[in-house]
């Protein structure tokens, strides 16, 4: 049975994005890209909310073809091309998308079925609103939080709509030279 793993950058005060969705505070560099690429390569299913998916679709399908494409762009574009994408959306037309399944945002049964039919992990990339919906239904099994040493003061929280109190079990940590810290937690249920 598969598990849904949240993969998200977070400010030190718990926000996934600024008030208007700003993410210019997120620190990324080759060290973080390499760590993420190694982690992402262990799965072939990506889960997105509609907004994050549209952002990804506007960049990754052609990122490797651009002049001067970075190592990260080439590697992630290759992974993105073959990964099965699942999008939580009530408006996207699946017929117009390649290698993508669209699930109604409130269709918990389809997500339970996806978990049952998937071997390994389903990575939920960013997508704070989608994460909130999944947290409400206790569907996230693990999280990889890239804690950035910045205080936003306000914004879109990583954790919202928690139905039951969850004690998280720390599985792993990694400190990057930039000061970003990756915390890997499992939800205990």
UniProtKB/TrEMBL annotation:
Pfam families: RibD_C (PF01872). SUPFAM superfamilies: Dihydrofolate reductase-like. GO terms for biological process: riboflavin biosynthetic process. It comes from the Bacteria. Coiled coil: none annotated. Residues 3-181 form the Bacterial bifunctional deaminase-reductase C-terminal domain. InterPro entries: DHFR-like_dom_sf, RibDG_C, Riboflavin_Biosynth_HTPR. Gene3D superfamilies: Dihydrofolate Reductase, subunit A. One of its GO terms (molecular function) is 5-amino-6-(5-phosphoribosylamino)uracil reductase activity. PANTHER family: 2,5-DIAMINO-6-RIBOSYLAMINO-4(3H)-PYRIMIDINONE 5'-PHOSPHATE REDUCTASE, DIHYDROFOLATE REDUCTASE FAMILY PROTEIN (AFU_ORTHOLOGUE AFUA_8G06820). This is Dihydrofolate reductase. It comes from Pedobacter rhizosphaerae.
């Amino acid at each position: 049975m598969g598990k849904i793993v949240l993969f998200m950058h977070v400010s030190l005060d718990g926000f996934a994005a600024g008030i208007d969705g700003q993410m210019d505070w997120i620190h990324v560099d080759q060290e973080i890209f390499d760590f993420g690429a190694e982690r992402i390569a262990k799965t072939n299913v990506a889960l997105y909310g509609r907004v994050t998916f549209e952002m990804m679709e506007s960049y990754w399908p052609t990122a490797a073809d651009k002049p001067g494409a970075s190592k990260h762009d080439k590697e992630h574009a290759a992974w993105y091309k073959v990964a099965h994408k699942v999008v939580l959306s009530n408006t996207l037309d699946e017929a117009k998308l390649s290698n993508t399944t669209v699930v109604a945002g409130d269709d918990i049964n389809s997500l339970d079925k996806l978990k049952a039919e998937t071997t390994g992990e389903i990575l939920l990339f960013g997508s704070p609103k989608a994460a909130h919906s999944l947290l409400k239904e206790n569907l996230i099994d693990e999280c990889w939080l890239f804690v950035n040493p910045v205080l936003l003061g306000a914004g879109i929280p990583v954790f919202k709509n928690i139905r039951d109190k969850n004690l998280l079990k720390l599985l792993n940590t990694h400190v990057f030279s930039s000061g970003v810290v990756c915390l890997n937690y499992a939800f205990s249920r």
